[in-house]
Amino acid sequence: MRQPRMTRRAFLQVAGGLVLATLTEIRLPHPVARAITRISWVERGIFPGSGTYTSPPFTTPNPFNSIEVSWKAAVPPGASLTFAVRASPDGQRWTDWIFLEPDPHSGARPDGRIYAAPVLLEPSTALQYRVQLEPGIDGSPVQLEEVELGCVDTRGQELRFLADVPLIDGWIIPRAGWGADESLRFDENGREIWPPSYAPVEKIIIHHTVTQNNPPDPAATVRAIYAYHAITQGWGDIGYNFLVDWQGNVYEGRYGGPNVVGAHTAGYNTGTMGIAVLGDFTSTAPPQPAIDSLMRLIRERAPQIDPGGISYFRDLVDVPNIGGHRDYNITECPGDHLYEVIPDIRGR
Fold this sequence. Notes:
Oligomer: single chain
Number of helices: 5
Mean pLDDT: 87
């Protein structure tokens, strides 16, 4: 079980608005592992109805490598809001602005909160966001209520003790191999947040993570997604059953082993295996090693699936046995360029 969180909060006044800053530390159970640190800021009551708002720079005492952004807003018909973030290692040299897209795997919460997929970058100590607000077709303004900006350090310098963990079936990197902190699956009282449940796999659903393409440290990306799902989203685990990086390495996802139910496709998780390819394939083709490993994973982990089969599934008609997230939910996932190779995956 994870040790109790150390949380510190401070209220600040910035440009007439309220900023709530929160520092959360989660102590890892292994004696040589450091704490996962998540720092977040919430801004309220400072946004225009149209135009551009740029936040002040926020700084952290230690480097981070993952940025998380979420917001609550009322957007009238025809209106839009576009978020971007940037980071700096020293407060002087900044990255280009990185535009954000809503995370296709989380959807809107009951309170209306929208999450963007985590942004992975080089270690930084300062970050900033901006938002462009365009009014509706009748001039109605966007009502941006709140923005939460968070940063997490998922780097792995102190995860050397994981190097010799045996591979699953000789080729799949287990959770311990990519540095999963199993204590995140439990609450402060030791109760498992999301106990495993099981169902035979009937369908394969392919995703993209909408994170950096070809990341230099893919395991750090997997850890960032794990932290985002387990802590920020509050699920208590990573939602995908497996993840595949650009070099073709495959990572065990959701805890529980074969046939465990994940959280990757709203309304259709039971009876499906969710496989995510690290990267954003909206306008970029997926690397061939990733496709090769994706096909091998499906072949070895779901041999009962007819790759070219189509059938009813829940309330859907003519669903392919191997499909993309967009075949189930209203989303662009897994990106046009990954989606267009799925027929080839079925045929090989």
